[in-house]
Amino acid sequence: MIEQGAMHPDIEQVLFTEEDIAAMVKRMGAEISRDYQGKDLVLIAVLRGAVVFMGDLMRSIDVPLAIDFMAVSSYGDKAKSSGVVRIVKDLDMDIKGRDVLIVEDILDSGLTLKYLMKNLSSRNPASIEVATFLWKDVEGKQAAINPKYVGTHCPDAFVVGYGLDFAERYRNLPYVGILKPEVYS
Ligand SMILES: O=P(O)(O)OC[C@H]1O[C@H](OP(=O)(O)OP(=O)(O)O)[C@H](O)[C@@H]1O
Ligand code: HPA
């Protein structure tokens, strides 16, 4: 059990509490449920960061859906994207003719989603949209991605928790916080 109010010593500032997160996910689930009535929804979570968000989001959607996973990596153990997106695990499912919703924990440089949108679009889904929990929409920094569903905007700092890691750590923090720069620099 994480004590109420306890903060990890490597965290500089908590940005979004468990309660904030629950409210955002509930709102996103309602938006998606409204938009995907009568559709053939497939949620595709991008491993590994999106697993926590995916687990919560899928339970807040009340229309029929299928799930699948893709693993891509571009950050490795760094706090900056390598710029090269690599597929580590592909989908098990054929998405042709289905309504795909990509589920991401964070949209930062946009390179991961730019690559995924292009790759998945070539498989001829009926539709393809993005649900991202965090959007670091810093002017001039990002590839042109326009997520339809967004949990919240995020400042241009390296954040961890709620699935987000630095070197595979901190994914299990129940809140999102800014990592102290001395931890990764
Ligand atoms: O918009 P971008 O700059 O491309 O960054 C976003 C991506 O970076 C992280 O993945 P990462 O490669 O660190 O793998 P992980 O999901 O296993 O943490 C995150 O989960 C997103 O997939
Ligand atoms: O701020 C971040 N934190 C963790 N993982 C990330 N991947 C892209 N940006 C981030």
From TrEMBL:
GO biological process, one term: hypoxanthine metabolic process
Pfam families noted in UniProt: Pribosyltran
InterPro entries: HGPRT, Hxn_phspho_trans, PRTase-like, PRTase_dom
An annotated Gene Ontology molecular function: magnesium ion binding
Cofactor(s) the protein requires to work: Mg(2+)
Keyword Glycosyltransferase recorded: yes
Location in the cell: Cytoplasm
This protein's pathway: Purine metabolism; IMP biosynthesis via salvage pathway; IMP from hypoxanthine: step 1/1; Purine metabolism; GMP biosynthesis via salvage pathway; GMP from guanine: step 1/1
Superkingdom of this protein's organism: Bacteria
Keyword match Magnesium: yes
Catalytic activity, as annotated: GMP + diphosphate = guanine + 5-phospho-alpha-D-ribose 1-diphosphate; IMP + diphosphate = hypoxanthine + 5-phospho-alpha-D-ribose 1-diphosphate
GO-annotated cellular components: cytosol
CDD domains registered for this protein in UniProt: PRTases_typeI (cd06223)
Occurrences of domain Phosphoribosyltransferase (ranges): 20-166
Main location: cytoplasm
Gene3D superfamilies given in the database record: 3.40.50.2020
Family to which this protein belongs: Belongs to the purine/pyrimidine phosphoribosyltransferase family.
Name of the protein: Hypoxanthine phosphoribosyltransferase
Source organism per UniProt: Enorma massiliensis
